[in-house]
Amino acid sequence: MIRPISFITGFASVLVLVGFFPIAAILIGWYTRNRIAAVATGALLFSLLMAVGMIITRQGVQSEEWLRYAVFWHAGLVVTGGLSGLFASYGNRRDLLISVVFAIFWVCVFLYGIR
């Protein structure tokens, strides 16, 4: 039987690890105010990790349906990650809140893509 505390701490750990990518974009945007760096971090950090993972595991395209699904899923992550960095780079609290909403949406899109 799963203990409630174990489940809650495990679930929170997964959310923190998954949320690292949009949080990195938010922190870079908020502290540097550099829009290009923030958008690039939000859009490309996860993309780079995915590319390296696919090269290391030698896992290519499995089917046309898989490719279509993966492209839309990955595009959703790139757009929401980039937007979270962009809004954080504006430097006011309202835009920081919008950036956090995009980060939460990024985590939801990521979890939706797990099959």
Quick overview of this protein structure:
The protein is mainly alpha-helical and 115 residues long. It has helices at residues 4-18, 20-32, 35-57, 64-89, 93-112.
Question: What would you note in describing this structure?
Answer:
By secondary structure, the protein is mostly helical. 84% of the residues lie in helices and 0% in strands. It has one domain. It has helices spanning 4-18, 20-32, 35-57, 64-89, 93-112. The longest helix is centred in the middle third of the chain and has 26 residues, at 64-89. It starts with a helix and ends with a helix. The model has no long low-confidence stretch (mean pLDDT 86).
Give the topology.
Layout: H1 4-18, H2 20-32, H3 35-57, H4 64-89, H5 93-112
Helix pairs in contact: 2-3, 2-4, 2-5, 3-4, 4-5
State the separation between the terminal residues, measured CA to CA: 24 Å
Count of β-strands:
0
Kindly name the structural category. Answer: mainly alpha
Number of helices: 5
Instruction: Summarize model confidence as the mean pLDDT.
Output: 86
Question: Which quaternary structure do these chains form?
Answer: single chain
Name the helicity range. over 70%
Order of helices and strands: HHHHH
Give the tally of structural domains.
1
Largest beta-sheet details: none
- Strand coverage percent: under 5%
Cα-atom radius of gyration: 16 Å
Unreliable spans are none
Task: Name the shape in a single word.
Answer: globular
